[in-house]
Amino acid sequence: MSGRFVTRGFVGRRGGTGAGSESDAEVASRIPPGQYLTRDFPVLSAGPTPRTPLDRWSLRVEGLVREPVSWTWKEFLALPVRDWVVDISCVTKWTKLDMRWRGVSVDTLLERVELDPSAAFLVAWSDGGYTTNLPLGDVLNGQAFVAYEYDGRPLSPEHGGPARLVVPGRYFWKSAKWIRGLRLQAEDEPGFWESLGYHNRGDQWREERYSGD
Ligand SMILES: Nc1nc2c(c(=O)[nH]1)N[C@H]1C(S)=C(S)[C@@H](COP(=O)(O)O)O[C@H]1N2
Ligand SMILES: [Mo]
User: Fold this and answer.
1) Nearest to 95 by CA among 207, 198, 9, 191
2) Could you tell which of 125, 175, 182, 204 is best to mutate to test the pocket of ligand 1, judged by most ligand atoms within 8 Å of the CB?
3) 4, 9, 86, 102: which sits with the fewest CB atoms below 10 Å from its CB?
4) 122 with 182: CB under 8 angstroms?
5) Does 178 contact ligand 1 (Cβ within 6 A)?
6) The whole model's pTM is what?
7) What H or E segment, with its residue span, contains residue 185?
8) Distance from C-alpha of 135 to C-alpha of 122, rounded to nearest angstrom
9) pLDDT tens for residues 41-66?
10) Annotation: CATH topology of 20-44+54-206
């Protein structure tokens, strides 16, 4: 497992911004407008960290599907898994490059249900009541995954463990921590931050921070 991520590019970046094989220009081109580079991994939670025991945990796909599916923790771990190395941008303006995750693609989860043709949006919901909304077009084809490892270790509770959604192409609030379900809908429905004035789509490359941006 330890050798898995050791590619030349990755080692270069590890050597420090601009200090390795990575040029400053290449790094700069990966930082969305208005963001700064960080090496920290800050914790941002709207409430207390839930701690659902794994034997009571499940992940559910429901809504506009022929039949809802629910995986226990064990069943979830048996699904096809992938490693991901992605850049993440938070609306509080930090960007962190080459974050290494292991998880199950949203494609894999949705392949296990029969989607109603009217399904066009998804609401991710979490322990503690957090929600976030995404159009299906923002999560299909490898754009989103449910992660349970970060940097080679089980995802910590503070960062959303046992499992969280990760949507690298959107500001990090779309990456629901402590995810427990995905609901397929015909209509869009603003989630927690989207209802509180944050942008409905949250594309960091278009600087879609607040509604109206
Ligand atoms: N369930 C849940 N998911 C959440 C949040 C939250 O408060 N609750 N905060 C969001 C926000 S605003 C951000 S920036 C990221 C922070 O993730 P981190 O704490 O791992 O950095 O999680 C997102 N997912
Ligand atoms: Mo955030």
Assistant:
1) 207
2) 175
3) 4
4) yes
5) yes
6) 0.91
7) strand 179-185
8) 6
9) 999 999 999 999 999 999 999 999 99
10) Sulfite Oxidase; Chain A, domain 2 (3.90.420)
